[in-house]
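Hi everyone,

Forwarding the result from last night's run.
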Amino acid sequence: MREGFGFWFFVLVFGFWFWFWFLLLLSLASAICVWFASVAPVRGSTYFSLPRQRKVGKRKPLNTA
């Protein structure tokens, strides 16, 4: 009964640390993604306060006469 204890202890400890680091890195990656998504493209601005594009006026109609 004691022969298999070391193997299962190793599996338990390895599994714990594997999931610990996996979840830690996953949460860090998602936090970085959320942070980068919230950074504005222009300094001191947001996506919704960017200046509007300049409207192009109507052209004069062509005189073909």
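Helices lie at 5-38.

Cheers,
N.
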